[in-house]
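In the design runs reported in the main text, the only information available to the sequence generator was the tokenized backbone. The following block is the verbatim input for one such run; it is reproduced so that readers can re-run the procedure and compare outputs position by position.
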């Protein structure tokens, strides 16, 4: 947990100028913990911050760059973030107090936003065609404190690799990983994100780089059996990225918009009302926002919904699904 707490401390320094705590009844400044600038969380979260600021009375929201899911749950717990983008498996582990969390964190869902597709990104000349081929390669498993790091370790273990011994590990975010591939510093990297991810698109468009996405959908059943049914399989369609001509079957995990259980109920309700009434603003920021509907927002969450969310969805006549089960 040391590196996670260092990341949190650095973010707190950045956020110290005026970010409110969770006592939402009196606050007018909120923060959304997102992720790195090369992924989907940050542009999506930035658009959401603007939308809420413009459409919820007396509220101003800022999107914060973070290491993503694990750190985001720690920030929710400490009150240094009010809303957060979090991968479903990480949200579940936080609620249960599973590793890497030291104790349970009382996160609650506002909405399931979209699915994160697990990218294993390599190049045509990397010699990597399967997850097993990552053995003895230089591999980035995501930034410390990210959900990408969690799922990268689990996928490699499911394929029979020890992520601490069988690869030369780097811990880079999406943009940094893509740059490292361009510079020949790593052979492959993991990234968990929506479609398309800008940094992967940029890598695929780079001259003399033959982008290759490694399929691994065959590992989903084992992950779901060991960790929970929030893991699923989906296709990254051919043509999603430059040079990627064929469909690729990969592991997916739902993204959850999370608040603390103590978050103000009326404010949670009003935030959801603003999001769904002005969803076109989110779609203009990133295509992944098109996946958000009233029906999908109440599916596939591994953690309970916040009372303000429950009230909003009941008003819309939408039934919330039972939280996704763990083994």
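Verbatim output:
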């Amino acid at each position: 947990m040391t590196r996670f707490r260092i990341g949190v401390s650095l973010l707190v320094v950045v956020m110290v100028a005026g970010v409110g705590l969770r006592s939402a009844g009196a606050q007018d400044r909120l923060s959304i913990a997102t992720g790195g600038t090369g992924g989907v969380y940050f542009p999506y979260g930035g658009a959401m911050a603007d939308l809420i600021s413009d459409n919820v009375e007396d509220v101003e929201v800022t999107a914060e760059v973070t290491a993503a899911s694990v750190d985001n749950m720690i920030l929710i717990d400490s009150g240094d973030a009010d809303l957060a983008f979090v991968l479903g498996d990480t949200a579940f582990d936080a609620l249960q107090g599973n590793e890497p969390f030291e104790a349970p964190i009382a996160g609650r869902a506002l909405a399931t936003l979209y699915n994160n597709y697990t990218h294993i990104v390599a190049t045509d000349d990397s010699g990597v065609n399967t997850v097993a081929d990552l053995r003895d390669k230089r591999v980035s498993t995501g930034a410390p404190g990210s959900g990408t790091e969690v799922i990268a370790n689990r996928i490699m273990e499911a394929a029979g690799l020890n992520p601490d011994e069988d690869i030369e590990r780097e811990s880079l975010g999406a943009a940094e990983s893509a740059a490292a591939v361009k510079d020949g510093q790593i052979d492959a990297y993991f990234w968990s994100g929506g479609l398309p991810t800008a940094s992967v698109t940029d890598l695929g468009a780079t001259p003399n780089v033959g982008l290759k996405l490694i399929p691994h959908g065959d590992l989903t059943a084992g992950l779901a059996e060991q960790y929970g049914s929030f893991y699923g399989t989906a296709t990254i369609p051919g043509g999603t990225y430059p040079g990627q001509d064929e469909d690729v079957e990969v592991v997916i995990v739902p993204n959850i918009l999370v608040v603390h259980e103590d978050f103000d109920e009326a404010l949670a309700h009003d935030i959801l009302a603003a999001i769904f009434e002005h969803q076109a603003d989110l779609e203009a920021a990133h295509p992944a926002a098109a996946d958000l509907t009233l029906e999908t927002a109440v599916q596939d969450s591994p953690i309970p919904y916040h009372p303000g969310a429950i009230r909003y969805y009941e008003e819309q006549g939408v039934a919330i699904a039972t939280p996704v089960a763990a083994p």
